[in-house]
Design a protein that fits this description.
Blueprint: E1 3-9, H1 16-26, E2 32-37, H2 44-52, E3 59-63, H3 70-83, E4 88-91, H4 103-110, E5 115-119, E6 126-127, H5 132-149, E7 161-164, H6 165-171, H7 181-193, E8 198-202, E9 204-205, H8 218-266, H9 271-294, H10 296-299, H11 306-333, H12 339-362
Parallel strand pairs: 1-2, 1-4, 2-3, 5-8, 6-9
Antiparallel strand pairs: 4-7, 5-7
Helix pairs in contact: 5-8, 7-8, 8-9, 9-11, 11-12
Bound molecules: guanosine-5'-diphosphate-alpha-D-mannose (GDD) and manganese (II) ion (MN).
Guanosine-5'-diphosphate-alpha-D-mannose binds next to strand 1, strand 2, helix 3 and helix 7.
């Protein structure tokens, strides 16, 4: 496993050299460090560059021209790591609030998890020297997220986390829109929703000894609203997918009918084989359009595959059976002026089943490097 430790810095001259040394003593020999510095006025970058000489090719720095925030530094760091073929990326702060002594524990858990969170809020973890009020805030924030987002994560805002390449590609880095504390919440929620295996490892979080925090307090309030935004984003995404899926299904029906007309009416071929053929051709068309359009968020760079195509056709058949069942039941049990009303309800029910099967089975989080 190739590990990359990503450390964003802004004015961390008093911390960075010690931290780099401490990290190198605990990571595997092939592990590397990337510092993402935003042109710190205190000369953090120069210190890193000097230190780099001691660690041939294992210490890297990405110098950005101006202060762009920690979240964007992490995102750029992740992209850098993915491009260089790293398998796991450990995000940590430069100020020793994230003690490097926990790295071996985080790495150990990475063997059987996609995401390992350094957590202040599980048994054994904690926040050092924090006032009652600050403790209340972090526990309150945790409960707020847990309730709203309905995901079993405790430490939502912590930034000491190990992300596998697989998890990052499932999350889709370009889909991340929030910054500040919310950035961590969004990443964790999307990982959970993408079906990543997540675990929390207890860490004690001391306050920084040197330098000052760069996180404005207003970000805390912003985060409260961002959680709603994160939740709505997901709902909107589902609705958009459903609409696209419906349009795709409509196009498939047109294809089906045109082919049927040409083969059965014009060419005079027998209806049943023609109908089966039309099902396969229209189904294939639907599969390809859904893969590249309706569920492009889930499929990303993945190619269409025979296995998923077959699954999709099974899903269409399942939808068809639901359609027929609902239609027949309605006709038998209710008085309807026209039978086509029952068929319309059947089609709607079949489509919902087909959509859910497609969303959660056929196209479930294949890879998300490509966005929207
Ligand atoms: N490149 C870059 N650019 N780095 C930045 C910037 C920036 O604009 N702003 C902050 N950093 C770096 C800092 O140098 C530090 O290494 C790290 O990001 C965290 O910044 P702090 O200022 O120490 O943040 P904090 O202690 O208030 O917040 C930490 O704890 C929170 C949970 O309590 C962070 O880890 C948050 O992500 C976390 O939510
Ligand atoms: Mn800090």
């Amino acid at each position: 496993m190739k590990l990359l430790v990503i450390i964003p810095t802004y004015n961390e001259a008093d911390n960075i050299q010690n931290l780099i040394q401490a990290v190198f003593t605990v990571i595997p020999p092939n592990g590397e460090i990337l510092v993402v510095d935003d042109n710190s006025p205190d000369g953090t970058a120069e210190i890193v560059e000097k230190t780099a000489a001691e660690y041939s090719c294992r210490l890297h720095i990405l110098k950005r021209p101006e202060k762009q925030g920690g979240a964007s530094a992490f995102l750029q760091g992740f992209a850098w790591g993915i491009e260089r073929g790293c398998d796991a990326m450990l995000a940590m702060d430069a100020d020793f609030s994230h003690d490097p002594r926990y790295i071996p524990m985080l790495l150990e858990k990475a063997n059987d998890h996609d995401v390992v969170l350094g957590s202040r809020l599980v048994k054994g973890g904690g926040i050092e020297n924090r006032t009652f009020a600050r403790n209340l805030i972090s526990h309150g924030a945790s409960l707020y997220c847990k309730f709203l987002l309905a995901a079993p994560i405790k430490d939502w805002t912590g930034g000491y986390n190990l992300w596998s390449k697989k998890a990052l590609s499932k999350i889709g880095l370009k889909s991340i829109v929030t910054r500040g504390y919310s950035f961590q919440i969004e990443m964790k929620y999307k990982a959970f929703k993408a079906g990543c295996k997540i675990t929390e490892v207890p860490i004690i979080f001391p306050d920084r000894k040197y330098g000052v925090s760069k996180m404005p307090a207003s970000y805390l309030v912003k985060a409260l609203f961002d959680v709603w935004r994160i939740k709505c984003m997901r709902m909107n995404n589902g609705i958009k997918q459903f609409i696209k899926f419906g349009i795709t299904g409509g196009l498939g029906t047109v294809t089906n009918l045109v082919l049927f007309f040409l083969c059965a009416d014009k060419a005079g071929l027998p209806e049943i084989p023609v109908s089966i053929g039309c099902f396969f051709i229209a189904g294939t068309q639907n599969y390809i359009i859904n893969h590249n359009w309706s569920f492009a968020n889930n499929t990303g760079t993945a190619k269409v595959s025979v296995k998923r195509w077959a699954l999709f056709l099974v899903s269409s058949l399942a939808g068809l059976s639901v359609n027929i069942t609902v239609m027949k039941c309605m006709i038998m049990n209710f008085y309807l002026p026209y039978k086509f009303i029952a068929q319309a309800c059947g089609i709607a029910a079949g489509m919902v089943i087909n959509f859910l099967f497609s969303k959660f089975v056929v196209f479930r989080g294949i890879s998300c490097l490509k966005e929207k």
